[in-house]
Amino acid sequence: MAASPLKRWARSEAVNGYMMISPTLIYAILLLAAPLVTLVAYSFFTDGYLVVIPDLTTANYAEAWSDPIFRSILLRSVIVSGLVTLVTVVLAFPIAYFISFHVPAAKKSRWLFLITIPFWTSYLIRVFQWKVILNYNGVINSILTGLGLTDHPLQMLNSIGAISITLAHAYAPFAILPIFVSLEKIDRSLLEAGLDLGENRLLTFWRVTLPLAMPGVIGAVMIVFIPTIGDYVTPELIGGGKLPMVANVIYQQLLKIDNKPLGSAMAISAMLVVAAVALVFLFLNRRFLRGSK
Amino acid sequence: MSQLNAAARAPLDSRAKMIEFHEVHKYYGDYHALRGISATIREGEFFSLLGPSGCGKTTLLRTIAGFEDISSGAVLIDGKDMSDVAPNKRPTNMVFQSYAIFPHLTVGENVGFGLRRDPRSKAEKAKAVEEALEMVGLKGYGARAAHALSGGQRQRVALARALILKPKVLLLDEPLSALDKKIREQMQVELIKLQREVGITFVLVTHDQEEALVMSDRIAVMFEGEIAQLADPETLYRRPNSRRVADFIGVMNFLPAQILGEAAGHVQLEVGGLGRFEVTEEQASARASGAEPVVGFRPETLTILYEGQQAHDREAPATIDEVVYYGDMTYYDVKLDGVDAPVRISMRNVFGRPVLDVGTRTRVAWSAGALVLFR
């Protein structure tokens, strides 16, 4: 006897497939898509002091982008996270290279394990530790004055440099791991081939190792750049609130001033800027990302 | 004919020494990987290092390229000691087992990789790349992505990339082992032709005895870090100097032998199933693996006689024990009368000759001259 169309539909492969991924699907919809859609919707609504009026407008975007303070903060955010990304990736590469090429295979996982140690404490505490280190009467200044190298303690907190150091430290493992993975994937005979074809070690690195490690480097750049631009804690604690980044003004609009539409418009604007920067970066490096076996 | 070609055709002994190993030892910690290798490879020679895995053949090849330091001894290339010469300064190029094609470069960029320091103009280099690709049968492939190539094509790119630098020695580390049988056999012939054409010394590492026999001018058979025998393919096949070499190269039948006496350059033997006969001293120079002497013979040196056929030399009665049909050939396992262990005989299936059944009584023709005595 032929099954009813409904039963046949329920048994079809496509439905089965959806059923199987449904936990993932529900997760993705509830935790990723829904908040984003809400945010986009809010950014086009009108602020009604204590309530949000669902009248569509682009006024929020106009207000955000015409505000020179918002623009300069957004620019600062891009510069700071660009700087952080540069420092993190440049410092991470030699570490990843060392583990991949000079640590015996049996000890590599031990090394990677050690690298994750900073993650055992909370992000907030790690940021606080930098505050202790960089403070006016903190570790570095105590050492400097104790050794008589300076009379006046250095003002290190509340600077872009301090913010960058703190973020670079926090994101270092995120940069090391993808670079390590791409270095691990390099067939070692390629490096011998480089030498065999007459190049010295340095040029073999430049012409073979580095280009082949680029997918990992690009991944590291993305992983560091995208979250740091939206970091809230470090500018607040290390920057002393005097050097706000884009997350801080969004927080202010959404929770302090309670202008949800403007805050949402700022958040979406920041997102678009991040996406644009990331896409330009990927485009410039597209030749390294071409498919290969 | 070019001068190089003329040099390549000159007898081996009269040619210049290209690679010399002097008492080369290599230790990895306690492991003795190379145990006093001494050998000379001549200019323009196609030389093979043959042996089972772990015998040190690849290590020895890598000492030529400079990827392995030696613990003691010396490696000379073209008369110069290479101990302080880095791999990138040696007049050798290598075709790696994995081919080591740079996946981020095109075929042309791969082939031209080693030309960076070459003083020629860009256009001249591009022409050289195109010529190198043409030489290996990949004309017009220059712009293709290297990672999209098949195994056989990668191998050709690896060859072109090495040969474009005109090395004195080309090193090939099991270059054909990753290819399927048809392409492998085709590449064997192409490599021989290419080697004759360019006249460069080729040193090939392989574990495939057939490949070594087909391609080489001379073969060094290696076991456990030592050269067991160094000879041309025919000598290696017909006159292996030890039972181990005989076992490794092709199929050889062994029968226990009794030495009755030696006189005037001849050794008198008695062998079960074959009777009494004598062999020359030359045939009797190989080492046995145990204390008991054995005679060895290849499957094709025996012939099964059909009714009415006469043996040219000697014959022995036998019974067919097993038949394996290969199309062009049939392998018979035959029990000689008075011997328990069967011997293998290969027969070409010429037209009109029937394949015999198991259990058939027959006669086997043989010659004492085709035997090797291991003692």
UniProtKB/TrEMBL annotation, chain A:
Protein known as: ABC transporter permease
Question: Which PANTHER family does the record cross-reference, listed alphabetically?
Answer: INNER MEMBRANE ABC TRANSPORTER PERMEASE PROTEIN YDCU-RELATED, INNER MEMBRANE ABC TRANSPORTER PERMEASE PROTEIN YDCU-RELATED-RELATED
Query: Which segments cross the bilayer?
Result: 21-45, 73-99, 111-128, 160-183, 204-226, 262-284
Its keywords, alphabetically, are: Cell membrane, Membrane, Transmembrane, Transmembrane helix, Transport
Tell me, which GO biological process terms does this entry list? transmembrane transport
Stated membrane topology is: Multi-pass membrane protein
Q: Which domain of life is it from?
A: Bacteria
Return the Pfam families for the record: BPD_transp_1 (PF00528)
Gene3D superfamilies noted in UniProt: MetI-like
Q: Which GO terms describe its cellular component?
A: plasma membrane
Q: Give the signal peptide range.
A: none
Q: Per the database record, which ranges form the ABC transmembrane type-1 domain?
A: 74-283
* Keyword Transmembrane tagged: yes
Q: Where in the cell is it found?
A: Cell membrane
Does Membrane count among this protein's keywords? yes
Write down the species: Paenirhodobacter ferrireducens
